[in-house]
Amino acid sequence: MGKSFIFGHKNPDTDTICSALVYADVKTRLGFEVEPVRLGEINGETQFALDYFQVEAPRFVEAVAGEVDEVILVDHNERQQSVSDLDQVKITEVIDHHRIANFETSDPLYFRAEPVGCTATILKKIYHEKGLEIEQKMAGLMLSAIISDSLLFKSPTCTDEDIEAAKELAAIAGVDAEKYGMDMLKAGADISGKSAEELLSLDAKEFSMGSAKVEIAQVNAVGVEDVLVRKAEIEAALEQVVADKGLDLFLFVVTDILTNDSTAIAVGQAAHAVEQAFNVKLEAKSAILQGVVSRKKQIVPPLTTALSK
Amino acid sequence: MGKSFIFGHKNPDTDTICSALVYADVKTRLGFEVEPVRLGEINGETQFALDYFQVEAPRFVEAVAGEVDEVILVDHNERQQSVSDLDQVKITEVIDHHRIANFETSDPLYFRAEPVGCTATILKKIYHEKGLEIEQKMAGLMLSAIISDSLLFKSPTCTDEDIEAAKELAAIAGVDAEKYGMDMLKAGADISGKSAEELLSLDAKEFSMGSAKVEIAQVNAVGVEDVLVRKAEIEAALEQVVADKGLDLFLFVVTDILTNDSTAIAVGQAAHAVEQAFNVKLEAKSAILQGVVSRKKQIVPPLTTALSK
């Protein structure tokens, strides 16, 4: 058995990057030959966490089949969110906390999904189950992932298990979760100097909903004004992606990390589904989604329902 | 949150029935309101185990949505192997040891699949993880499931974990695994008095392979002669099912529990794929598959490959 790659989804966020690094630590200490890799650019928030805990980013790869026969997926399972040549390798494990869709294997595998707020919360349990001690750097990465995915414990995806895990990890990492967390989120919310195209691709995911091809991108911001003054530019970029990829809907969501509300911009022939899904009226293609911070729990399910009718 | 049903696949085998009963014990003791149910008739082998350990069979149901909103699947995940109205309820958990396919949710869930020989082996671990003691009856059911799925530890699907679990469970159940196991397998291998139609449906599963619709049924026997003297009758029944369901292939596999070889009868326009998959020549629609005892590990993967070309 040769080396396996461990990686999260395209357009990597902090949970995807940290979980690949952390699960590689687990597997390595259990005697497996693995390498964490990434499928895209490190964002500002993740870079803050890596710098703070002095951990190197995983190596970037475009494809995997040329280097390994087997892979381990973390923080995703849907094929369209994964590496393009996934069908040419064998998936031996998945550790995830998302819905399951567009996933199929010909052989049994180790698949562990739990409805918690963050992949790292599951990884923390695995350290305990395997009797492995958690080192400071790895604790810091897992804590960063939980803070990122839960928007500092404010997201409805955040469970008691995530909060308990974060407490334990903050103690090992030697940081104050609230203070470190807000600094990290602010580092990620700094969108100055980013082009509209960059904003749309920072944390974008594709979904099949009913027969519709949907992309949803989310950025955090400290106040949404900095983003909204560039609305025309962003709309043009959205139109371009919709045309290029043949999307039925591109939903761009700006989440204010201070108020925990989001502003959405919807482009595509299926944009009306957004009104139905969230009981809002789009004005100039935009609407405020009050209290909505979680793509997974508050956006994907109602939009899937609206588009499956 | 109302009651949840826990059930395994259609045409239930010993692992499916026992895992539903056992996981219901786990969930009940953890404070959840659950009921184990079954989607089909109890076979002779399973009945032997239930009688031996004095456990009532789960209630039979045709559909679930009229009674519950949420369900827990054990020992399967593929939609076509599950209850017909699965799309009308929410799947909150899956505990399984098969490949993952034709499975999709709109929300995150608890999904635990491990590449072990038997669902009950995973359930045994869950007792330990939750700090629950295993009672004698439940140990007996889990042991029966492992013996059934592993054909008394002879199947290539059987892992060290299954063997370890079986040892521990036999001690709690107070039986000799080898002796009890052979008695149980023989009870299941008694096919006298069964019609050809019954033989085909005892342990039948449907699969999508490439674009082909495939059904694979397996029966155990002590010596295959009792089955093969009825070959003409069985072939006619196979032809009938292929026509009724529009199958591309129906593969009927008789596994000798003493020699651990199987005899296969293949009917349908895609029967040639069997020759390719197992490197055998079908004579009068039949071939011996030497050393083949596991549908999951030795039949489904090569047949999927052959039919996906």
Compose a concise summary of this entry:
In chain A, the strands form two sheets. In chain A, strands 3-2-1-4-5-6 form a six-stranded parallel sheet. A five-stranded mixed sheet of chain A has the order 7-8-9-10-11. Chain A is built from eleven helices and eleven strands.
Characterise this structure.
Chains A, B: It catalyses: diphosphate + H2O = 2 phosphate + H(+). Chain A is 40% helix and 20% strand. Chain A has 309 residues and is α/β, with parallel strands linked by helices. The first copy, chain A, has 2 domains: 4-189, inorganic pyrophosphatase (n-terminal core), CATH 3.90.1640; 196-308, Diaminopimelate Epimerase, Chain A, domain 1, CATH 3.10.310. A 6-stranded parallel sheet of chain A has the order 3-2-1-4-5-6. In chain A, helix 1 (14-29) runs antiparallel to helix 4, helix 3 runs antiparallel to helix 4 and helix 4 (136-150) runs antiparallel to helix 5. The longest helix of chain A is centred in the N-terminal third of the chain and has 16 residues, at 14-29. The radius of gyration of chain A is 19 Å and the shape is globular. Chain A starts with a strand and ends with a helix. The mean pLDDT of chain A is 95. The A-B interface holds A 97-115, 129, 296-297, 300-301, 304-305 and B 97-115, 129, 296-297, 300-301, 304-305.
